[in-house]
């Protein structure tokens, strides 16, 4: 019988998964770089606490969706290694979900950052 996964095992698996995503997935590295940029800009501009909550939730949503997308792509590739229209459709749907969250994240970022940038730089 297989032993139960401990809490430490679960966290270890999660950190390994994130490390793999960062190493293997170009888009994940892009999302992390943009998240770091948003955090640095927020620190520079002195965001309000509620704005930090929104920015961090949006960052978490984008990164989480990219992780789900990557998992779906790998699972589909495992289940159907050959070209298959249904497999391609599933992968495109998952990628579209990331796109929706990323576009909304950009809009939210603009809503939060632009007023600060206007005051700071007279834009």
CATH class term: Mainly Alpha
Per DSSP, what share of the residues sits in E-state strands of 2 or more residues? under 5%
Q: What fold name goes in the CATH topology slot?
A: Helix Hairpins
How is the quaternary structure best described? single chain
Mean pLDDT, rounded to whole units? 95
State the helical fraction.
over 70%
Provide a concise account of the structure shown:
With 123 residues, this protein is mainly α.
Question: What is the secondary structure topology, with strand pairs?
Answer:
Elements (H helix, E strand, L loop, with lengths): L6 H18 L1 H20 L3 H31 L5 H37 L2
Helix pairs in contact: 1-2, 2-3, 2-4, 3-4
Report on this model:
The protein has 123 residues and is mainly alpha-helical. It has a single domain (26-121), classed as Helix Hairpins (Orthogonal Bundle), CATH 1.10.287. The protein is 86% helix and 0% strand. It has 4 helices and no strands. It has helices at 7-24, 26-45, 49-79, 85-121. Helix 1 crosses helix 2 and helix 3 packs antiparallel against helix 4. The longest helix has 37 residues, at 85-121. The model has no long low-confidence stretch (mean pLDDT 95).
List keywords for this structure.
123 residues; mainly alpha; Helix Hairpins; 0% strand; globular
């Amino acid at each position: 019988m297989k032993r139960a996964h401990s809490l430490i095992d679960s966290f270890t698996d999660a950190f390994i998964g994130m490390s793999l995503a960062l190493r293997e997935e170009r888009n994940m590295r892009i999302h992390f770089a943009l998240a770091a940029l948003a955090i640095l800009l927020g620190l520079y501009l002195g965001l309000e606490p509620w704005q930090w909550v929104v920015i961090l939730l949006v960052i978490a949503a984008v990164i989480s969706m990219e992780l789900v997308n990557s998992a779906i792509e790998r699972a589909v590739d495992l289940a159907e290694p050959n070209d298959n229209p249904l497999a391609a459709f599933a992968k495109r749907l998952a990628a579209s979900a990331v796109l929706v969250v990323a576009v909304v994240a950009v809009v939210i970022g603009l809503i939060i950052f632009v007023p600060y940038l206007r005051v700071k730089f007279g834009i």
